Amino acid sequence: MPNVSTPRHSIAFTPPTLHIEQVNPSAWFLAPWNLRRIAAKARARLRDGIMRFGLVQPVIARAEDRMIIGGHQRWEIVCELQHDLTSVIFLAGLSDAQAKALAVLLNNHDAQGEWEISSLTALLEQLRDDPLDDLLSATGFDDTTLEKFLASPGAADDILTPVEVRPMGSTVWVLIGVPAGDYPAIADTVQQIAQNPAAFCRGGGERSGGGVSETKTDNDNFAGKLALRRYFLRRYHEGGSPLVFDACQATGQLWKALRTEFTVTYFGVDHVAQPGRLRIESERVLATPGWQFDVIDVDTYGSPWLHWEQIMKHGRGPVTVFLTIGSSMFGGSTDNAALRAVGLGRVVKRLPPSMRKKLDRIAVEACLALSFTHGWRVVEAQEAPPGRSARYLGLHMVRCAVELPVPNPHAFVAVADPSDSPIREDLHHG
Asked: CA of 115: how far to CAs of 57, 111, 119, 345, in Å?
């Protein structure tokens, strides 16, 4: 099998000849292997752009038969708009295979750039302030996306929500074994207890839990995350040069934008290697005693709790921590830190899928309560509006002069033989 990552040059390739013509759209025809689909709302925005600016990006077609290689959606729209003449780039000398390869290249996001978020935001702000024309609507972004980009730096007080961090209340985990034939008789009661356990306890009341969807989107709710960080930087680090540890750097867009507004000493790492950047496991950095970071940013779309656990153990304080809490905390690989926080770390080998979202409801509260266990005082905690796949929290903490007494929060009661469950046999040790 040939090495597909290495181009083969055994046959010389002559680039096709190129010329541009103004032709009637009815003179072209679509390739039978159109590679892209477009949603109705996105197509409407593309249509509005063509109506406003014209077809400024010509369609690409093969000269010999006028088959469209790139620009199928634009061609359909100019036909709808009944344009008499439009620009076409004709390429001569392309074989069918070469035309297909070019079509893939023209539509391939892996061969294209990505937004430089800080620069894009600045440009959109300039368009917003233009008094002559509503040019924001011509950019192709919908209103929701524009609102995320254009949240003003001073809007944090309006969009952030205070979060109460308190010691975790006692939790008793009960595993009940019931013969399969008898379960239908108690199924309704079990479901009611599972959905609202507080209603069956003295005091009543339902535990609330914010849910997030399963869609993973990098830099979702960019403006909200910026507002959260601006708020804490202004409130606790104004006038200094805090040492920032970006534990999940990725493309670094957030701190690129923030470093244009605040003076910080920045250190970013990521577990994914990129040119010019080392591959570093940020949990190991935080697990090393003696670090003196003033700000720690854990912007991950999985679980931040392994990082949080190390911050609790080795931080000296004061410190500001930003946590992105993804919807897959108890996903494919069980998060041991979260399991330990809710009291199941010693008894669960793997987490049944049916339990994951139920545990999500209390895992955040339990993990944040580790601050009390490790002698921290949370001065302030705020939450930005959630994205499609995550929650965003910011906390400023200091070490307590005297360690606070925290009761043992967990107990485990096992009823019936657990041999067929993912729970270990040493349940009585929980």
From this structure: 19, 14, 8, 41
Residues 64-103 as b/e (b if ≥16 CB within 10 A, e otherwise) read eeebbbbbbbbbbbbeeeeeeebebbbbeebeeeebeebb
Query: How does pLDDT run across 318-367, given as a tens digit for each residue?
Result: 999 999 987 654 443 447 777 777 777 666 656 666 666 667 667 788 88
What average pLDDT score do residues 257-268 get?
89
How far is residue 390's CA from residue 367's CA, in Å, rounded to a whole number?
16
Find the DSSP H helices in 369-418.
370-373
CA dist., res. 335 & res. 227, Å (int) = 28
3-state secondary structure 13-65: CCCCEEEEEEECHHHCEECCCCCCCCCHHHHHHHHHHHHHHCCCCCEEEECCC
What confidence tens digit (pLDDT) does each residue in 134-167 have?
A: 788 788 887 777 776 676 555 555 678 888 887 7
Tell me the C-alpha distance between 308 and 209, whole Å.
20
d(CA 44, CA 138): 11
Residue 303 · residue 336 · CB < 8 Å:
no
For the stretch 61-92, pLDDT in tens is: 888 888 888 888 888 888 888 888 888 899 99
Asked whether the beta carbons of 363 and 340 are under 8 A apart, the reply is: no
Delineate the domains of the chain, giving CATH numbers in brackets: 17-111 (3.90.1530.10), 117-150 (no CATH), 158-429 (3.40.50.150)
CB of 124 within 8 A of CB of 138? no
Distance (Å, whole) CA 169 – CA 342: 10
- Cα Rg of the chain (Å, integer): 28
Spatial contact of 45 and 142, defined as CB atoms under 8 Å apart: yes
Scored b (16 or more CB within 10 A) or e, 274-291 reads eeeeeebebeebbbeeeb
User: CB of 61 within 8 A of CB of 67?
Assistant: yes
Q: Measured between alpha carbons, how far is 381 from 110 in angstroms, rounded to an integer?
A: 38
Length of the chain: 430
Which amino acid would we find at residue 245? Answer: F
